[in-house]
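hey so i finally got around to running the thing on that chain from the lab meeting. sorry it took forever, my laptop kept dying and i had to restart like 3 times. anyway pasting the input first so we r on the same page abt which one it is
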Amino acid sequence: MKGTSQRGNTLAFGELGMKALDRAWISSRQIEAARRAITHYTKRGGKLWIRIFPDKPVTSKGQGMPMGKGKGAVAYYVAVVTPGRILFEISGVTREQAREAFKRAEHKLPIKVSFVES
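ok and heres what got predicted. didnt touch it at all, straight out
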């Protein structure tokens, strides 16, 4: 996961966005928790775009399993995020409302983010 984001690093749909400052794997559960925090705070006002998708499977074997016997089953899916990637975009809400919603969503994510606007 070297370097910065080459794609998805500019606002494409909304007026305000949340940009990643670190690199990490973000699980589908973390993305959903952040989405819920944003929609809850904005009271389902405006339009929200999720710009990342968890398409990388992560496997694990059961606890106490001996070595060998092949690869484990898929445990969960993650989105690979590099610095500069836009995670969420929003429009139709005030700037202050979007900033507070993104601040609440940041607490659900394992990385630092910044607030960007077009």
